[in-house]
Specification:
- It is built from 19 helices and 15 strands.
- Helix content is 45%, strand content 14%.
- With 474 residues, the chain is an alpha/beta fold.
- It is globular.
- The strands form three sheets. The chain has a seven-stranded parallel β-sheet with strand order 3-2-1-4-5-8-9, sandwiched between helices. A six-stranded parallel β-sheet has the order 12-11-10-13-14-15, sandwiched between helices.
- The protein binds uridine-5'-diphosphate (2 copies).
- The site of one uridine-5'-diphosphate has 19 residues, from α2 and α15.
């Protein structure tokens, strides 16, 4: 409860800093910004959140409403985006570009807001376009980085690597303090210098040195060695301070903010299952699967004989889910009847932290999104990772290195390669019925992550250090 922390007295920074946050698109990005907003309020800061409108998905709009009803003190400022028409581009990537192209519109907002802005925090995907605005206004700028530290090291070294490779693909990348990253592990668009994602990625890497600091959602127990290398300047000389403040905890929704109807169905079912017996299956907020793959995955889960809670996603943007295709049709005739009480399938948003926190959940078949994986660790649920695009293979590699999850390499890329029902059944059974050394390691890392978030812990103190730095500058 924020007021509790503030009432403790010594946490109130003086004078009260006014932190303005500009988030980006997609729940993987918005989630980190909103959790940080809540945490900063808890530490006694005044927080204004700029909302880029219109948003892409319903999940994002709901996230903002939930934040406002739970934290009425957070102020909202609307940024009305200039249109950016690119029908063939992924809708979230298109929105990153749209926010980037609208960055000049921030100036009047930042000038007029009161009290004056102490610092602007903005997401990695839009950071480079915001730098010129904050520099002109002499406002300190911090970057919010949403995922693991090896990915941060990749972005920071990538401009030079891209240049060296000319028009060709990237074979492998050696990063001091991180190691060798095979070309197959980096986000696929980065092999194409003309891809919009690559253009943004290179601009981000170039602009990073101008950050007054980087707030990263990762944490010492997972990424300590790479964070140390970044902060020693071993990756890029003169790199701004990276402060690990993660994994930021989900916002506790007030009862009024909870979508009760959606929750009740699966929660009641989960309550009735034995401890750690259920596999949670979900692939984040922007990974859609083909109808063939959905059927095959379903048959695999059925064959595994394990209990499961599966979030099916057949469309990239949730608004498109209202396409008249019923769940029964997606899964194949008779599927739900055959599975019966052993599994629950939903085709809508679930409150993932409540699933992962539930004592019946004992494993998580995931795409390895940064947030989802950090959440799995935070709740002590071993992830079985089938990574696809973006940071997902980098996350899978780090999790594997630490022994806190399993990367299913032979399945190829989620969303690209097809996996058969037999392979699904085999891996799921191994995870749910195996000896569970991974489970033990996850629970140890969970303890460290939770400790890091409390007073005296590395992430907690990191956030305080950031706030103290902002106050000092002001
Ligand atoms: N999420 C959720 N319910 C869903 C799907 C996703 O709460 O039904 C949340 C999940 O907990 C995570 C975020 O959405 O916080 C997804 O971010 P992540 O970085 O894991 O993956 P992305 O969706 O960006 O690939
Ligand atoms: N990244 C980016 N844009 C940049 C620089 C870096 O998106 O200009 C990083 C970002 O932190 C993320 C990954 O590249 O981890 C992009 O992954 P993806 O497209 O899957 O997006 P996400 O799942 O994070 O929404």
């Amino acid at each position: 409860e924020p007021s509790q922390l503030v009432r403790d007295g010594d946490l109130i920074p003086t004078p009260t800093p006014h932190i303005v946050i500009l988030p980006s698109a997609g729940m993987g990005h918005l989630t980190v910004s909103t959790r940080l907003a809540a945490a900063l309020v808890s530490h006694g800061c005044l927080v204004t959140l700029i909302t880029p409108l219109p948003m892409v998905s319903e999940a994002e709009s709901n996230c903002i409403s939930n934040l406002c009803s739970s934290f009425p003190h957070i102020r909202l400022l609307e940024l009305h985006l200039l249109p950016f028409d690119a029908p063939d581009v992924d809708p979230f990537l298109r929105q990153f570009e749209s926010i980037r192209r609208s960055a000049a519109l921030l100036e009047p907002l930042l000038v007029s807001v009161t009290p004056p802005v102490s610092a602007l925090l903005t997401d990695v995907t839009v950071f480079s376009s915001v730098v010129p605005v904050t520099k002109a206004l002499r406002i300190p700028i911090y970057m919010i980085f949403t995922t693991c530290a090896s990915m941060l090291a990749l972005v920071s070294t990538f401009p030079g690597i891209r240049k060296e490779a000319g028009d060709g693909p990237i074979e492998s990348i050696d990063i001091p303090g991180v190691g060798t990253i095979p070309g197959s592990r980096i986000p696929r668009p980065l092999h194409d210098p003309k891809h919009l994602f690559t253009i943004q990625f290179v601009e981000t890497g170039e602009a990073m040195l101008q950050a007054d600091g980087i707030l990263s959602n990762t944490f010492e127990a997972l990424d300590g060695d790479i964070l140390a290398a970044l902060n020693a300047g071993a990756v890029v000389p003169g790199f701004p301070p990276v402060i690990a403040v993660g994994p930021q905890e989900p916002i506790k929704l007030r009862a009024a903010a909870r979508p009760a109807v959606e929750r009740d169905d699966w929660m009641a079912w989960l309550d009735a299952q034995p401890p750690k017996s259920v596999l949670y299956v979900a692939f984040g907020n922007r990974t859609a699967q083909s109808r063939e793959q959905i059927k095959e995955l379903g048959i695999g889960l059925e064959k595994s004989g394990c209990r499961f809670l599966w979030v099916v996603k057949s469309k990239i943007v949730d608004k498109d889910d209202d396409d008249g295709v019923e769940l029964g049709e997606l899964l194949g005739e008779g599927y739900l009847e055959r599975v019966g009480e052993r599994g629950v399938v939903v085709k809508s948003w679930v409150i993932q932290e409540e699933v992962l926190a539930h004592p019946s959940v004992g494993g998580y078949l995931s795409h390895g999104g940064g947030n989802s994986t950090f959440e799995a660790v935070l709740y002590g649920v071993p992830p079985l990772i089938w990574p696809g695009g973006g940071d997902q293979q980098m996350v899978a590699a780090q999790v594997e290195k630490r022994g806190v999850g399993v990367w299913i390499k032979e399945w190829g890329l989620c969303g690209v390669n097809q996996v058969s029902s037999d392979d699904v059944a085999k891996r799921v059974r191994e995870m749910m019925e195996g000896d569970n050394a991974v489970g033990e390691s996850v629970r140890r890392m969970q303890e460290e992550a939770v400790r890091g978030l409390g007073p005296g812990g590395s992430s907690y103190e990191g956030l305080r250090k950031f706030i103290a730095g902002v106050v000092e500058r002001g």
